[in-house]
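for the writeup, i need someone to sanity check this before i put it in the appendix. the sequnce is what the collaborator sent (i think, or maybe the updated version? ugh). structure was predicted straight from it, no edits. if anything looks off just tell me and ill rerun, i have time this weekend
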Amino acid sequence: MHFVKGFLIFLSVAHLAFSEAILDPDFFPGEMVIQLNDPQLKESILDQRCDSWRVAEEANNLLPWKRIPEECFDYVKKYVTGTGYILDLQMVSAQAGLYARSVDLSGDRKNAWIFDVDETLISNLPYYAEHGYGLELFDNAKFDEWTEMGVAPAIEPSLKLYEEVLKLGFKVILLTGRSESHRNITIHNLSQLGIQHWDKLIMRSVQDMGKSATVFKSEKRKNLMEEDGYHIVGNSGDQWSDLLDSYMAKRSFKLPNPMYFIS
């Protein structure tokens, strides 16, 4: 009984530790104030809160957002420039590869694998490193300037998956929210990284401007399936809008991206 009471007290304290008042030393009396004034403890609790935010973001549990929480700047920077991000990317691509190898590609169906481009095949991390890792509001003009440089590096785990699905016999479709005006530089950037073979590179036309990414990509998947006869077996993207809504792939694989959200 004493153990149960002690455990319930622990849960109560733990609940308080993750409340909105956790960083306010006036909220706690006595000894707890001394603990919360410990910089290392504050940093640990803040990291846990930001970790919870990232998990909610990756699970598509957040409402639409325009920039990362200000208090999570250091956390996001550490994550995307550290081993955690790389390991997560490797895990997603490894699981996608396992699935791809399990698919029966016999017959005459046009079995396709869709890849998004930004933060899926190529990384804009050099750009976001100069713009707060998602803390700054997105600036279309500045990002267009970066895009036209054509120097975005590859996301290596995705590059390996791309190479593997090609060897297995999948038809590769690149489906990106980039504008048609960036087609030439996008092809150049991808080619420089060894991404040179695909069935289609689908980009936003003038008629697609103003559509949400979810609507745009769902419409394009519909066209691929109903008009072009593709059987979409796999889909890799860093945004839920790359993957969800209608005409979805048989299996979808979400890559991590805590820097921005596209609906």
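Strands lie at 110-115, 171-179, 200-204, 230-237, 251-254. Residues 1-34 have pLDDT under 50 and may be disordered.
thx in advance!!
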